[in-house]
Amino acid sequence: MRKVAIIALLAVVLAFAVGWTTYTVKVSSVEINALAVSDLGGAVLPIKVTLLTPGDGRAYVAGVPEAGQGFGPSAQIALYVAARLSGVPYNNYTALLRVLASDAQVGGPSASGYITAAMYALMNGLELRNDTAMTGIILPDGLIGPVGGVSQKVQAAAAQGIKTVLVPIGEAPSGVGGLRSWRLAQLRTPYTTSLAAR
């Protein structure tokens, strides 16, 4: 009786083992200089963007206790747009976003354009420059939409030694010197690769 039980158990284990599949999870990360504004002025907030593949097509946000309603949904749109620009299904990836500043006050989706660029870079094996920052909301069609507080954000970037800031078209920072400001209308491959280190 005992031999029969052992044989039956081995048969069940073998049946499950035949159905097992193994796969490798690829993890890649980059840190970006997101720009924010609050009652105290502009701020540079480091955000760590991580992609896992295979994934579930979702974007998860951590470390943002004060986040506005737009941050999570805009991160999901960023994943969708970056995958579309890369020519891959977005559900191949899971995106993890973590605001690294402990006093982070992310009030909305203004970092989503840069998050899209970071995800695109990770999907395509590109490196982002660490002397660049960007502000602008990403829209589902890839357009970069307007955001508030551009002058304060650019001033904060300049104070941190950032040399290039990309802003939405039609929004020019005033009273800020010592850096270049590029205006983006749409996040397409040429704009995204212009952020890559050369």
Structural notes for this entry:
Helices cover 31% and strands 27% of the residues. The protein contains five helices and nine strands. A four-stranded mixed β-sheet has the order 1-2-4-3. Strands 5-8-9 form a three-stranded parallel β-sheet, with helices on one face. A two-stranded antiparallel ribbon has the order 6-7. α2 runs parallel beside α3.
Give the amount of beta strand, in percent: 25-35%
The CATH class label is Alpha Beta
Overall morphology: elongated
Q: Main sheet: which strands, in order across?
A: 1-2-4-3
Q: What percent of the residues sit in helical stretches (DSSP H or I)?
A: 25-40%
Keywords for this entry:
single chain, 9 strands, 27% strand, 31% helix, 198 residues, alpha/beta, 5 helices, Ribosomal Protein S5, domain 2, elongated
Can I get a quick summary?
This protein is α/β, with parallel strands linked by helices. It has one domain: Ribosomal Protein S5, domain 2.
List the topology elements.
Layout: H1 2-19, E1 26-38, E2 41-53, E3 59-62, H2 71-86, E4 94-99, H3 112-123, E5 132-134, E6 137-138, E7 144-145, H4 150-159, E8 164-168, E9 180-184, H5 189-194
Parallel strand pairs: 3-4, 5-8, 8-9
Antiparallel strand pairs: 1-2, 2-4, 6-7
Helix pairs in contact: 2-3
